[in-house]
Amino acid sequence: MAILIVLLEIVMTTSTPGFEFKLPVEGIDVTYLVSPDIADDGSLRKLTIWNHASAADSIADIAISPEIFKQFAMPNVETVCRIAIAQAAIEGAFSQVGAANLMLDFAIEPWEGELAPV
Known about the structure:
Layout: H1 2-12, E1 13-15, E2 19-25, E3 28-39, E4 44-51, E5 54-63, H2 66-71, H3 77-90, E6 100-103, E7 116-117
Parallel strand pairs: 5-6
Antiparallel strand pairs: 1-3, 2-3, 2-7, 3-4, 4-5
């Protein structure tokens, strides 16, 4: 049964490639990726921030409440990614060991650094 659920989740969602960005860590610019996970119905399920050098190293998984889609008009994916980057930085996700599990907070101002589509 668990295998079936996992397969259904894979089939029912698509991931867009996302954006690449850099942040200084201990004086060195480190490249990261932020990747949105979008369901077939178009709703944004979560964002994941990865260390570009090691795609296995997730920095943060940032969930998005399904209630948001019922209550507010969603900004574009780039803006949501910028909010996620800012939130991960505020929450200290870039300096901790292991992935931070967060719920996206739309009250946070979007990060204003350079993003490059991948």
